[in-house]
C-alpha cells in the first residue's frame, strides 16, 4: 500500500501576532512545528505501516526551504520518503493555488492508495486544501476522520459530526482528512532523528519539475485577496446569574428564549 | 569554532522537551513523594531509543553523539532529576564501560540489550569504606577454575535493585593496590548476588539507590571486563564520561528552576506589581540565567570533546564542578524567589533544591573535581 501524507509547517503559537502594516504573520522568533492535525494524519499512516506489510509512506509539503525540518521530523517518526515542493513561484499561494500545486506534485509522484491530510492548519484554519486536492484528483474523500479501518480495497471511516459520526466506506484510492480524535501521535525516536539526517534524503520539486501552468500557482494563481487582517476586539464580559439555582435556571431559559437560541 | 547545535541535536532537544513535558513532568512530584521507581518511563524511553543515544546502531544504540545524550539528560532533569539520573547512570556507567572496554562477545550479549533499553544497567564501585578513596576496595574476586568468586558489599548504587546488569569493581590481587582491581559484568540473577538496603534519600527519591551484596557470588570468567588488574582504569575512565551526564543533570535542574522562577515572577503580584517588575529580583534571575549559560557551555564542550576523541577529563571535571554548584545556587535562589510557597510541596522548587545537592556529591564530589583539575595544572 502506498500512502501520501500532506503536511504543513506552521508557527507554534496560540497567540499568532500579525504585522499591523502588512497584515501577515510575524514568523521571526516563533518556532515552527508540524501542524497538529497533519501529525494525526501522519500517525494514522504510521499505524497502518505498523499493522500491514509493504506500506510505504511519502510525506509531502509545499513550503520554503526551512520546511525541510518538518519533513525530517516526519522521517524521524517513521515515514519512508519526503518531498519538499519549493519554489519562489509558489509564494503567496492561497488554498486554491496550493491545491493546484499539491495536485500536480502528487500526479508526478505516481501511484497511491490513500492520501492523508490534516483537517486544517492552525495558521489559516480554512480546511480547504485537502478537499480541493481530492476534487482535482477526482478522488472520493472522507473529511474529519476520527476512526479508520482497512478492509481489502475499502477504507471504513467514522466521520465526526457535531452530534455524532457518520460511518462511511470508500474504495481506494481516496483522500482522508484527520482530526485530533483519530489518534495520539508518537514522538520521533532519537534513532530516527539521526537516520532522518544521515541516511534519508528530502527530494526537492520546483515549479519546473511539476510542468505546471504558472498562472495557477503562487500569488498569480490565487483568487483570494486578503484585504485586511486584524485581531478581533475582545467580546464583552459574560453575565453571571446569581441566586438560587431554581430561579437562575428559569431566568437563563427565558433569556435564551428571548434570543431565539432555544 | 562553532557554538551552534546541529539540526540533529536541535531536533533531539525538541523531542526530549516534548517527551519530558508530557510523559515525565506529570510523574515527578509523585515519584519523589512515594520513592517510586518510574518503570513506565524507562519503558517509554526505550521505545523512543533514548537508552543508548551515544552508541552505534550496530550495538543497539541510536547512532547519535555525546552532546545529544547530554541534551537528553538535561531536558529530562529540567522537569525530573530522578529520570535524568536513571538515564545517566544507565548510559554512562552501565553501558559505556562495555562499549569502551568490552570484547565482541560481551557487547553482543550485554551492550545490545542495554542500549536498546530492554535491560537496565548500573555500576558498583563505592563501598562503605571506599568513597572518594575508591582504590581502597574491600570487595574481593578470587579465581576458581572458570569462575571468579566475588565477596563484599557496595553502597549507594544508582539503579540498584532495578538494573539487570551491573559493572562491579573488585580486588583480584590485594597486594597490588589499585593495580589489583578488576571489573566484572554481573547479572542480577547470578548466584550469591543480592540487593541490600535501599537508601531513603534527601533528593532524587524516585531513583533507586541500594547496597549490592556479594556472598560467594559466582561470575563466569568471560565476564571479566577488560584485563585483570586494569579495573581501576576502567572505573576512572567510566567516571570521566559519567561526569558529563551528571553535569548535564545539574544543568537541567538549574534550567528547570530558572524557568519556574521566571513564570512565577510574571504571575505573582506584591505591592500591585508582578515580582518581575522588581529590579532586585530581576538581577537575581539575570545572575541565575548567566551562570546556567556558562555551565551549559562547559557541559557541551566536554561532551563535544569526548565525541571527537579529544582529551576531556579535565573539561568534564570543570563542567561537573561548575554545573553542580550552579544547580545548588540557582535552586536556592529559586526557593527564595518563591518565598513561602517555594518551601512547600505545592511547587516543584523545593524538590529541585533537594535534587540539586546530590550533583555536588555523586560521581566525584566537588572536591574530587578540584583534585582532578588541579592535578592537570600541577602535573
Describe the structure.
The complex is a heterodimer of chains A (262) and B (379). Chain A is an alpha/beta fold and 262 residues long. Chain A has a single domain, classed as 3-Layer(aba) Sandwich (Rossmann fold), CATH 3.40.50.620. Chain A contains seven helices and eleven strands. In chain A, helix 3 crosses helix 4 (129-136). The longest helix of chain A is centred in the first third of the chain and has 16 residues, at 36-51. With 379 residues, chain B is an alpha+beta fold. Helix content of chain B is 54%, strand content 16%. Chain B has helices spanning 7-34, 39-47, 66-79, 81-101, 104-115, 231-267, 279-308, 313-342, 349-359, 366-377, and strands spanning 121-124, 140-144, 147-158, 165-171, 181-187, 193-198, 209-220, 224-225, 269-270, 273-274. A four-stranded mixed sheet of chain B has the order 1-4-5-8. In chain B, strands 2-3-7-6 form a four-stranded antiparallel sheet, with helices on one face. In chain B, a hairpin with a 2-residue loop joins strand 9 (269-270) and strand 10 (273-274). The chains are: A alpha/beta (262), B alpha+beta (379). The A-B interface holds A 69, 72-73, 76, 187-198 and B 6-8, 11-12, 15, 18-19, 47-50, 53, 57, 61-64, 68, 72.
Amino acid at each position: 500500500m502506498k500512502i501520501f501524507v500532506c503536511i504543513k509547517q506552521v508557527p507554534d503559537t496560540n497567540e499568532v501576532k500579525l504585522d499591523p502594516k502588512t497584515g501577515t504573520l510575524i514568523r521571526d522568533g516563533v518556532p515552527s512545528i508540524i501542524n497538529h492535525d497533519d501529525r494525526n494524519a501522519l500517525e494514522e499512516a504510521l499505524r497502518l505501516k505498523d499493522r500491514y506489510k509493504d506500506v510505504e509512506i511519502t510525506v509531502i509539503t509545499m513550503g520554503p526551504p526551512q520546511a525541510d525540518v518538518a519533513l525530517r521530523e516526519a522521517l524521524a517518526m517513521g515515514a519512508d520518503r519526503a518531498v519538499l515542493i519549493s519554489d519562489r513561484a509558489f509564494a503567496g499561494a492561497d488554498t486554491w493555488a496550493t491545491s493546484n500545486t499539491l495536485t500536480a506534485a502528487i500526479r508526478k509522484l505516481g501511484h497511491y492508495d490513500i492520501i492523508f491530510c490534516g483537517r486544517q492548519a492552525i495558521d489559516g484554519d480554512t480546511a480547504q486544501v485537502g478537499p480541493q486536492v481530492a476534487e482535482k484528483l477526482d478522488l472520493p474523500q472522507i473529511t474529519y476522520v476520527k476512526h479508520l479501518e482497512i478492509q481489502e480495497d475499502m477504507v471504513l471511516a467514522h466521520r465526526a459530526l457535531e452530534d455524532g459520526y457518520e460511518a462511511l466506506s470508500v474504495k481506494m484510492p481516496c483522500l482522508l482528512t484527520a482530526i485530533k480524535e483519530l489518534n495520539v501521535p508518537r514522538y520521533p525516536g532519537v534513532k530516527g532523528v539521526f537516520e532522518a539526517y544521515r541516511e534519508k534524503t528530502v527530494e526537492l520539486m520546483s515549479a519546473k519539475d511539476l510542468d505546471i501552468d504558472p498562472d495557477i500557482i503562487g500569488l498569480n494563481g490565487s483568487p483570494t485577496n486578503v484585504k485586511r487582517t486584524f485581531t478581533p476586539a475582545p467580546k464583552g464580559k459574560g453575565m453571571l446569574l446569581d441566586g438560587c439555582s431554581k430561579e437562575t435556571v428559569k431566568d437563563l431559559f427565558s433569556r435564551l428564549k428571548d434570543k431565539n437560541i432555544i | 569554532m562553532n557554538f551552534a547545535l546541529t539540526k540533529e541535536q536541535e531536533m533531539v532537544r525538541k523531542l526530549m522537551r516534548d517527551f519530558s513535558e508530557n510523559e515525565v513532568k506529570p510523574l515527578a512530584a509523585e515519584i519523589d513523594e512515594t520513592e517510586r521507581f518510574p518503570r513506565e518511563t524507562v519503558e517509554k524511553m526505550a521505545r523512543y531509543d533514548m537508552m543508548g543515544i551515544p552508541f552505534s546502531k550496530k550495538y543497539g544504540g541510536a547512532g547519535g553523539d555525546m552532546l545529544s545524550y547530554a541534551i537528553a539528560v538535561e531536558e529530562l532533569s529540567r522537569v525530573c532529576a530522578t529520570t535524568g539520573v536513571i538515564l545517566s547512570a544507565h548510559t554512562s556507567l552501565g553501558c559505556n564501560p562495555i562499549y569502551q572496554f568490552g570484547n565482541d562477545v560481551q557487547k553482543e550479549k550485554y551492550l545490545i540489550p542495554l542500549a536498546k533499553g530492554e535491560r537496565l544497567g548500573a555500576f558498583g564501585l563505592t563501598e562503605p569504606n571506599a568513597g572518594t578513596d575508591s582504590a581502597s576496595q574491600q570487595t574481593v574476586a578470587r579465581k576458581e577454575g572458570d569462575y571468579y568468586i566475588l565477596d563484599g558489599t557496595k553502597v549507594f548504587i544508582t539503579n540498584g535493585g532495578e538494573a539487570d546488569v551491573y559493572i562491579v569493581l573488585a580486588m583480584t590481587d590485594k597486594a597490588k593496590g589499585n593495580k589489583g582491581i578488576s571489573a566484572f559484568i554481573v547479572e542480577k540473577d547470578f548466584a550469591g548476588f543480592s540487593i541490600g538496603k535501599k537508601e531513603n534519600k534527601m533528593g532524587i527519591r524516585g531513583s533507586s539507590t541500594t547496597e549490592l551484596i556479594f556472598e560467594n557470588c559466582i561470575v563466569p570468567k568471560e565476564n571479566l571486563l577488560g584485563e585483570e588488574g586494569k579495573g581501576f582504569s576502567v572505573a576512572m575512565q567510566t567516571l570521566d564520561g559519567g561526569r558529563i551526564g551528571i553535569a548535564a543533570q545539574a544543568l537541567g535542574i538549574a534550567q528547570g528552576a530558572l524557568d519556574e522562577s521566571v513564570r512565577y515572577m510574571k504571575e505573582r503580584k506584591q505591592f500591585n506589581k508582578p515580582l518581575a517588575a522588581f529590579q532586585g529580583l530581576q538581577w537575581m534571575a539575570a545572575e541565575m540565567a548567566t551562570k546556567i549559560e556558562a555551565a551549559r557551555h562547559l557541559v557541551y564542550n566536554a561532551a563535544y570533546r569526548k565525541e571527537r576523541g579529544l582529551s576531556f577529563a579535565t573539561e568534564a571535571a570543570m563542567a561537573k564542578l561548575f554545573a553542580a554548584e550552579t544547580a545548588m545556587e540557582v535552586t536556592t535562589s529559586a526557593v527564595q524567589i518563591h518565598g513561602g510557597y517555594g518551601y512547600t510541596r505545592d511547587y516543584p522548587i523545593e524538590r529541585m533544591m533537594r535534587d540539586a545537592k546530590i550533583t555536588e556529591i555523586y560521581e566525584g564530589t566537588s572536591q574530587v573535581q578540584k583534585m582532578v583539575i588541579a592535578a592537570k595544572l600541577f602535573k
